[in-house]
Amino acid sequence: AIIMDGAVIEDDVFIGAGSLIPPNKTLLSGYLYVGNPVKQARELKQSEVDFLKQSAINYLELKDDYLKQDS
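Below the sequence we write its predicted structure tokens.
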């Protein structure tokens, strides 16, 4: 995806590969966005929102594991 200057991406948003977010565009929370220029495609399912939250937790755990290796 390409995100232009001034774009705002709220929490819990999926952006499709190859999408273009134009300048000063706001992507509202809880939706899938796709296209060039990007358009709101559909509301996210609860399972997709849960996946986003779990992915963030996993990345934090990986970061912590990595930092422990350098100690």
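The first helix runs from residue 46 to 69.
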